[in-house]
Amino acid sequence: MGERFRRFRDRLRAASGNIRAPSDDARTAPGTARPPSDDARTASGRRGVPPPEAGRRRGRGGEELTVPPAEFSSYYGRPILKPPVWTWEIAAYLFTGGLAAGSSLLAAGAQLTGRPALRRAGRLTALAGVTASGVLLVKDLGRPERFHHMLRVAKLTSPMSVGTWILAAYGPAAGLAAVAEAAPLLPERGPLGVARRMLPPVGRAAGLAAAGIAPALGTYTAVLLSDTAVPSWHAAYPDLPLVFAGSALASGAGMGLIAVPPAQAGPARRLAVAGAGLELFGAHRVQTRLGLVAEPYRVGHAGRLLAAGRALTVVGAVGALLGARSRVVSAASGAALLAASVATRFGVFHAGVASARDPRYTVLPQRERLQRRADEQDR
């Protein structure tokens, strides 16, 4: 009865394709050694010796039936995510917007502490930065009226819509503050004399208003990048605003170190150190906390730009501290901080583009999240 059952079981397995049914010749009597299978042969053909790669499945002829390494690609060779369509104008806008924000904060501090040369430098730099930002945005949009169309709606859940209104509110305030610096050049009598008397108080109010909007201007672009599906931008949403805020402060301080004598550059030096520390702290968190999607911030073109930005930031901060009595050292430190801000903004931009083009940064984090959820449900 037992022998019939075994034969029936063997036929079922052979029919299902799991194993090949052993023939009658291959069966042995109880207690007799069974002939070893092909898996038990070694490369030299000896029987009874386990193969050198025990545990791996082998098919007919000894070929290995292992699964080939996964290749991260998608249908028709296209990436899973569509890379950002933004060009270098947006990367440059990230810098000019931060420069304008940092300069407005520096100008407000100089205004409140009675440093007219530093105030003037900050206001004029802020106007130049916001003007360049508008030009770059219009150039990226292709048609100027598209920026006007963005002002027809206000959507608090859209960082782009909020950013448009921030820029629209900041621009006139920064412009009035900068125009007020021309008041001493106007005649004392006549209609222009009235403008000469009214511009200073208007400039003071406008400068403080621009400084109040400046933190939002300097950081909303980080929120805008983080709100996309680009892996390296989206995963950095808690720390990218720190990087952009620190970079904005350092760049504004750098322009102040270049434009004014060391005797009036005290607030610029302090702002440079604070901005450099904040930027380096945020950059460290981005590169150490994100796991796989932090890789684009360390390798390739983006990695080189960000490494240069960190080095220049350190050089600029140290020079700002040590160059309190030297105009040359202060100016060199300011130039290093400006170059660091450019490298950082372009590095972050290129890191996001690289992460969108490589499917690994999309697929593997998704698998890890799914595995964590499955593990949490099993607990």
From TrEMBL:
Keyword Transmembrane: yes
GO cellular component: plasma membrane
Transmembrane regions listed in the UniProt entry: 206-225, 240-260
Sorted UniProt keywords: Cell membrane, Membrane, Transmembrane, Transmembrane helix
Biased composition (Basic and acidic residues): 54-63
InterPro entries, per the entry: Electron_transfer_protein, NrfD-like
Stretch list, region Disordered: 1-68
Assigned protein family: Belongs to the NrfD family.
Protein name: Polysulfide reductase
Species assigned in the record: Micromonospora sonchi
